[in-house]
Amino acid sequence: MASLATAGRAQTEPAAPVAAPAASAPAPAKLAPVEITGARANDMQERRQSTAAKIVIGRDEIDRFGDSTVGEVLKRLPGITLQGAPGRGGAIRMRGLGSGYTQILLDGERVPPGFSIDSLTPEQIERIEILRAPTAETGARAIAGTINIITREGFRKRLNNLRLGAGFENGSVQPGLSWTHNDSIDDFIYNISLSAFHLDRLSESVTTTVHEDIVPTPATTVTQETAESRDKRGGLHATGRLQWKGERGTSLVLMPLAIYSDTDTRRTTRLTQDNGAAPYDHSDGSVEGHYALLRLNGQWNRLIEGAGRVEFKGGFGEGRWDGRTLRYQRAADDTVLNTYDDINNSRDLNATLGSKYTTLLADDHSFVAGAEVENNRRSEQHSAVDDGGDDFSARALRVAAYAQDEWNVNPQWAVHLGLRWEGIDTGSDAVQTGTRLVDVSNRSSVWTPLFHTVWKPDPKSRDQVRLSLTRSYRSPSLQNLIARPSINARYPVDAHGAGSNTPTQADRAGNPFLKPELATGIDLAVERYLAGSGILSANLFHRQISNYMRSVTSLETVSWSSDPRYVSRVQNVGDAITRGVEFEAKFRLSDVVDDALPIDFRANGSVFQSRVRQVPGPDNRLDQQPGATANVGADYRFRGWPVTLGGNLNWTPGYTTRISETQWLVQGRKRVGDAYVLYTHSPSAQVRLTASNFAPGDYLTGSRFEGPDARETSQTDARSYINWQLRLELRL
């Protein structure tokens, strides 16, 4: 529960009675020493004490597998899945919901556009907080939930951690290092984390497309594309936390962030068609570029004697991508048939400003109120040899105000009430091949009342029940608002502006008229806390969604081709519901079974169900939401040996999603196994060997289109690979 009370408590031990000598005056009594201690509650205590449902992942869990990305840490947690091939990371999903449903925060602030949390290494993170339902303070753009990543915190103890490692995948070496330094100078505490890496990854896939003409003449065409690409990336990431503490509860914190990365991807394909009429025989191309992000967040706190605490925070940053995409489509004799050459310069600007007032109304009763402003701008400039280039830009201004009241009504019952208002103003404009397109703007606002409560049958009981009633929303991304088309690589537009494509090989374009989704939800959880930081829990959730957004493919008359083309755009398609149940078990086996080995056991499983009402069933589920996901893992430290073994198995079943009356997407099952062995040479040196995706399998994805005149199916079979990591971890 939020409180202004300090974590430390003064405790005075009574002095033991001493008999005075008979012939002397009594000696003056000596006061026992007063010891003041203060510390943040451990991960399980913080989870238990929070009124809103929250999972806290600390340094021990983050370090356990020696993961190279934050996504690999998160994929083992309840209800979280990663999109993409096994062992390759991907977009993070809570409760199986797609992009935009999960709110990602960095030190309590929304991450800037274009930023991926996999840009951070686990060594730069202090802890991860997962909220299954929104709160007024953290924000309501969290239909699935919120992930708050806290970077390494400063403390007065001197710290020097150095980690040197190398990854090995499919014959390629991927070196990396990280360094974390913490120290203090008088009232100034600082923490600096640096990491450098180089990736070299091979990807191989085969895509088979079967097209069936129904009218006027039945005919079937089978097309197969074999692709191979090598992706080389290198980067340098730096984070810091600079903290100054003054008198009367005054403090100032600065949190700089700098990211730089280079990309060099080479891709080759070969295309065959059973009727001999493939648009080209083979292709080769490259993507070269670099990404840079600079950001500075700041926070100032001041304690007002007898009135509460005020906080002002803000941040600003800029992200840039400068790259070139080059692709040649060639005939069998290597003659160039089509050339695609795009020079892309994208820029994201982000600025935030917020204030918060916290006061203690009574013991165990606090009130918080605040306001926020966030401004995002994105611009894209595309130029090519054969045209005048395109300029696209979009902006989003968000203003919010909130209040929340949190109190312990009695030792058994705690309540959290909140109300948040957010107003959003978006707009976009474009100049395409010298012609200015229509400027579009959109304005909306959302009221989000929020209620959380936790009840304990007995104040001393380890059992408790949680209930949350919330409203949340999902706003369209600036990328989805920008109407710039992305032309399908297999079926490009030729030099004369002509060319058609197929339903499963559609172009992509934005939609500036998108409206935000609104969701009303309920969460109900039962938790039992076990000895030794163990837990058993079950959580039910339900969300009712309006203005649901999804990509829909249709045949359009377009400005970039003289022929009609299939185009995929995000659209508001109607209403939807999603529900599910999440289970979690985490404990040391010897704490629950007498004479058992001290094995740390953890398991979680989730079952999901969803339905889009405007789409006929079956399989009219929400995009990218599987029917279930599960994890099981264990760790064991040998008695008398400085060796720890551990592993985890992750499973997500395959599923089919019906997008519309004529369109389906297919996702194959996904199984990922990770294991590690840790040798501790001394408290200051240890060696870790990790095998990620140790049983690699093919990753299947596909799509299907069934229209009145034709049917088409497409399936991509991509290989996955085992990745070995060997790392030396030193405390200097």
Any overview of this molecule?
With 732 residues, this protein is mainly beta. It has one domain: TonB-dependent receptor, beta-barrel domain (Maltoporin, Chain A). The protein has five helices and 37 strands. It has a 22-stranded antiparallel beta barrel. The chain has a five-stranded mixed beta sheet with strand order 3-8-9-6-7. The chain has a two-stranded antiparallel sheet with strand order 1-2. The longest helix has 7 residues, at 43-49. Residues 1-39 have low confidence and may be disordered.
Sum up the structure in keywords:
22-stranded antiparallel β-barrel; Maltoporin, Chain A; 5-stranded mixed sheet; mainly beta; 732 residues
Please summarize what this structure is.
This protein is mainly β and 732 residues long. Helix content is 3%, strand content 63%. A hairpin with a 7-residue loop joins strand 22 (440-455) and strand 23.
How does the SSE layout of this entry go?
Blueprint: E1 9-12, E2 34-37, H1 43-49, E3 54-57, H2 59-63, H3 70-74, E4 80-82, E5 92-94, E6 102-106, E7 109-110, E8 125-131, E9 145-151, E10 159-169, E11 172-185, E12 188-213, E13 219-245, E14 251-273, E15 282-304, E16 308-330, E17 336-362, E18 365-384, E19 387-410, E20 413-432, E21 435-436, E22 440-455, E23 463-474, H4 478-481, E24 507-508, E25 517-530, E26 534-556, E27 565-588, H5 589-592, E28 599-612, E29 628-637, E30 643-652, E31 655-658, E32 663-667, E33 670-682, E34 685-692, E35 699-706, E36 710-718, E37 723-731
Parallel strand pairs: 6-9, 24-27
Antiparallel strand pairs: 1-2, 3-8, 4-5, 6-7, 8-9, 10-11, 10-37, 11-12, 12-13, 12-36, 13-14, 14-15, 15-16, 16-17, 17-18, 18-19, 19-20, 20-21, 20-22, 22-23, 23-25, 25-26, 26-27, 27-28, 28-29, 29-30, 30-33, 31-32, 32-35, 33-34, 34-37, 35-36
